[in-house]
Structures are given as C-alpha cells and as structure tokens.
Amino acid sequence: MSSVVLTCGYSYHTQRFHDHYSTGLPCYLFRLQTEGRCEADIAGRRVSLEAGDLLMLPPGTVYGLHVGEQNAADGSIASGDYYLLTVSEWLDDWWARAGKPLIARIDPDEKLLGLWRLMIAEKRRQTDDGGGTGSPELIDYLLRTLCLYLERAVTETAAPSAPPPFAVLRLKRFIEENATGRFKIDDAARHAGLSVSRAVHLFKEHVGRTMMDYATEVRLSAALERMKYTSFSLHQIAENCGFGEYSYFHKVFKQRYGTPPGVFRKRFRENESGTNLL
C-alpha cells in the first residue's frame, strides 16, 4: 500500500491560533518549528516549542497546538512551522522498529527543509484542479526519505554523551556536501554562523579532528568509489574529488591506505569481489 499524505505545508501565524485533537490524532503528525515559538499539548503535557523542535506523533496521540499564548515582549505573535499528516503501512513498520521520541530538538538544515518542500510541491501537484499530475509513487518515496532523514537527525542530537552543538552538525554536513568542490573553512564557518576561529575550535573539540582532516576523509571516500566503479582517470578523480593536482592525491592516498591509487585500482580490477584490498 502506498503512503497517503493527507495534508502537508508550511504555516506562519501572526495571530492567535488553536488546534485540538482531544480524542487523539487519526493519523501520523510530523511538525517542525522553524521560526518563533508556540506551545503544544502532547498526551496531557504542555511543552514550549522553539525553532528546531520536532514533533513526531503516532495515531491516537491526544494533541493540541496553541499559538499566541507566549507572546514576545512587544506583544507580537510569530510562529512558523512545516507540517505533515499521513497514513502509511510502511510508516507503521518504521515506527514499530524502534522507539521514537514524541518531541526532539534537531538542526533544521536546508537539505531537510528541501525534502519537505518537495513533498509539499508534489502534494500540490496531486491536488491541483483539473486533474493533478502528482505521482503517488514519488510521494511515497519522498515520505520514506523524509522520515529516515528525520530519524537520523534525531539520533545525532540524542546520543548518550553530550551532543555536539547544532553549529557543529551544520559544519559536518557542509563539509560532507562541499568537500569535493571548492571547499573553504571560511565558507563552512559562515554557513554555521560562526567566526572562523570559533568554528575551528568547536569542530576539533566535538569531532576530534580538524575540519580539513574531515574534508580529506570525505574526499578519499569519494575517490575510492570513483576508482572502483567509474572509468575516470586518476587525474580526473583527483580533480573531481577536491584534491586538485594528482601528485597531492597520490601522496594523501598512499599515506592513508599504504598503497598508491594506481596499485589499488589495479588490484581491485583483478579481484571482482573487491574485498581485503585495504
């Protein structure tokens, strides 16, 4: 059975707003606060929600939303959120696989918000007047991807040890997404809203390595994949994976794996299983 997205969208409230499910939600509710603040009643407990607070509520949860009861000092009301209500057999299985917190604090990065916007756009296509063109299959896969991405975001910020600040998570994701391009520490720090010195210190403190070391690991991982599964030359791989000159790539690869990239690739091609090479 494909997933059925009942409704999804983005809402921004500047006036008082209340929503109640006193007999319990009839479906799954996902709600991510992105701006301002509000309050929610969840299973008999009232909680304050600020940017980064995620609700993941299963069917049957008694739920209420209250916007405007916690006004700013000047009396203004502001609350923005992405929301999604859905039913899905896959979601039932996903929910049952491991316990999910009803509320969690995550980093609402652009990739996550981009997934949510894609879901909103595809749902709008499906419901447009005149016969929507939205694809139920695509909506099903977008929902699964969004749920798995949310689960990872929750796991990252709910580790048993003290979780790293959101800024560190943003730095890691920026490096992972940009290391094979023209990556600069200044750009990563700007993305996380930090000074360069603060970004360097926080990253080393919480990750245990420098940002450039982490970027090198990302580049090497990308290079390994290309060496195994593409016909790109080693010089092309060096350039495409952010190393620039092949001589530098050769040096870093050999230091990390103890063998030159050319020798590694030759061995891999001679061994179809690709195991026990490093």
Automatic annotation (TrEMBL):
UniProt entry tagged with the keyword Disulfide bond: no
Species annotation: Paenibacillus methanolicus
GO MF entries: DNA-binding transcription factor activity; sequence-specific DNA binding
Annotated Pfam families: AraC_binding, HTH_18
Name under which the protein is recorded: AraC family transcriptional regulator of arabinose operon
Domain HTH araC/xylS-type residues, every copy: 169-267
Gene3D superfamilies: Homeodomain-like (1.10.10.60)
Keywords annotated in UniProt: DNA-binding, Transcription, Transcription regulation
InterPro entries cross-referenced by the UniProt entry: AraC-bd, Homeodomain-like_sf, HTH-like, HTH_AraC, HTH_AraC-typ_CS, Tscrpt_reg_AraC-type_HTH
Annotated SMART domains: HTH_ARAC (SM00342)
Keyword Transcription in annotation: yes
Domain of life (superkingdom): Bacteria
